[in-house]
Fold this sequence. Notes:
alpha+beta; Jelly Rolls; 10-stranded mixed beta sheet; 5-stranded mixed beta sheet; 8 helices; 20 strands; binds 2-oxoglutaric acid; binds fe (ii) ion; JmjC_dom; Cupin_8
Amino acid sequence: MxxxxxxxxxxxxxxxxxxxxxxxxxxxTQLYQKRVPLVIKSLNIGSCVENWSxxxxxxxxxxxxxxxxxxxxxxxxxxxxNFSYQSMPFSEFIDNLEKQDSGDCSRIEKYYLRSLGNDPxxxxxxIYKHFPELSDDINFPDMFEKExxxxxxxxxxxxxxxxxxxxxxxxxxxxxxxVTQNRxxxxxxxxxxxxxxxxxxxxVYSVSAPVSRDGHNQSIMDNILVQVKGRKRITLFSPExxxxxxxxxxxxxxxxxxxxxLKRHPLFAEVVHHQCHLDGGDVLFIPALWFxxxxxxxxxxxxxxxxxxxxxxxxxSSDVYGNKDLLIANSAESIVDRVIKKINTxxxxxxxxxTRRFVNKIKDKCL
Length: 367
Ligand SMILES: O=C(O)CCC(=O)C(=O)O
Ligand SMILES: [Fe+2]
């Protein structure tokens, strides 16, 4: 942060699950409803905490090739794109991490692995399906129903790597569109069927909320981040701070959160930093819409599990990726897009005047 600026820091609440006879019940019935992050200690997450040494992992995957974010900077920057994607044999990747850990600086590149499905365009990652050699070592806590699980992701990072501030949206490989008839949403159709859209549909809306540059359908997820090895420093930001984070899609443009340039990002001074550390065996609950930024204080291994937090009736039963709340958000955003288009046709001084009026009106009525 700049010289005389003191960020507002709050520690994330921490609970030791061994102090409860049935922690999962307490989580589901009380803690979960608070919708705030929570560090949970002493959950049974399986033998991974003891077993997952670099040697063990290399033996499991002698021939595996992995796709990595590779950067010469510790601070990954999605705007400057200071990283590239590279494929590397898993054993070489781990050898390099070990060299970095032991202070051998001959390799200056930093690595970040986020596991993908077999076909990253179509599959979400499922550890049980894509990493069966390791799935016996990890126990998913019963904090959610198995049917609610959306994906499980395996992450390995070099010491020092900082992952940009973001919130998570689950993404699926099939692009869906909405069709409306008599101004009511009728159904979603896959992109492959667009050319067959019957004439009687009055409009086809592409999915736009939450926004994805490639138009993939998305839904918002709850998450647990299971720390298996190493230490992470995590800063979370409340969805209430959304106006202060300079968002670009699902990511914040403020990269260096601990030394922010307040001339460029003055509103960031308002943000409350919810901080915690995770060590091996710790679990962090990240409620949907909470932003998070991760600094790996050592090289680390983690697994995270995304699950849909809304009850089943919120989801469109004919489409596993849909949810009615988001359908509404999607159609509202399409209307906002039309309003923007209209406003942009006004002469400049009217444009500014009416933009301010409409923004204030929405704020007054909706917040
Ligand atoms: O720990 C990390 O590397 C990133 C975690 C994360 O973004 C997540 O669990 O959603
Ligand atoms: Fe995330």
